[in-house]
Structure formats: C-alpha cells, structure tokens
Design brief:
The protein has 2 helices and 4 strands, in the order E-E-E-E-H-H. The protein is mainly alpha-helical. Helix 1 (about 40-90) packs antiparallel against helix 2.
C-alpha cells in the first residue's frame, strides 16, 4: 500500500480517522495511533480526549458502584435489625399481634440486602504488559502501551 498523497512512497500505516495510507511525512502519531498530518489531527485529538475521559469515568463509576453496594448492604442490615427489634418489642410487651410496621421494615431491609449483594461490579482487566486498567477501553490494543489485548 502506498501513501494517499505521495503515491510513490510506501505507507507506514493507516489514518485511524479516514483510513488513508500514510507515509512518514504525512503521518503524525497520537497516543499510539496514526492520523493525517494537518487533515485529521484535530478530529483524532478530540476522539482520543473523549476516550481517555471515558476510561476515567468507567473507573470512577466502578468505585461509585462499590460504594453504593456497601451503603445498600449497611442500610438493609440496619432496616432488618430495626424491623426485627420493633417486632420483638411488640411481643415482649404482651401483645399477641406482631407490629406490622416492624415486619414490613424487616422485609424491606432483607430485600435491600439481597438486591445489594446481587449487584455485579465489573471485573478489573489489567493489561498483561503494563498493568493499565482496560475496563471500558475500546479496540484491540492497550491505549497506554499498545500491547495486543484478547477480548472475552
């Protein structure tokens, strides 16, 4: 394959944006990908910026999900304990009818605990070469080191 602009020169790669063959003079490397110099550079820069932000947001989102899961379990256990305590208190005061509110609070707490424990958190997928977190990254290569990554 030859360069799109300089047809007599061999291409060193393809522009990630437009797919044209690029020689050394026409190519610019940006975060381990090639782009057309002065033609596709700005577009590729914007896409790379969005991709980096996406990877960052995936990591932040995962931390937030873990925090929500922990808080849901803690609230569920507290509701379960509070509802059970209220129900038991109605029996200890001589009532033969259990406290309906206490029972419902305990049931709600149990449901919240089961729901929270069933929430799946995405597994970390580090790059085998550099250890960079790959969750949420597009493509077949690590964006940090360029190592080929097998997708499951």
């Amino acid at each position: 394959m030859n360069c799109y602009v300089h047809r007599e020169r061999a291409a060193i790669g393809l522009c990630i944006w437009c797919g044209r063959g690029l020689c050394e003079e026409c190519a610019v490397e940006m975060d381990s990908v090639l782009a057309c110099r002065h033609r596709c550079e700005m577009d590729v820069q914007q896409v790379q910026r969005v991709r980096r932000l996406s990877v960052h947001q995936a990591t932040v989102g995962k931390r937030n999900l873990q925090t929500r899961k922990t808080l849901n379990v803690m609230c569920g256990v507290a509701l379960l304990a509070g509802g059970a305590t209220a129900t038991m208190a109605s029996f200890t005061h001589g009532s033969h009818v259990p406290n309906a509110v206490g029972i419902w609070v305990a049931i709600l707490g149990g449901i919240l605990v089961v729901f929270a424990l069933g929430t799946k958190i995405p597994a970390e997928r580090p790059c085998p070469k550099c250890g960079h977190e790959l969750h949420g990254t597009p493509g077949e290569r690590c964006p940090k080191c360029g190592h080929a990554v097998l997708r499951s």
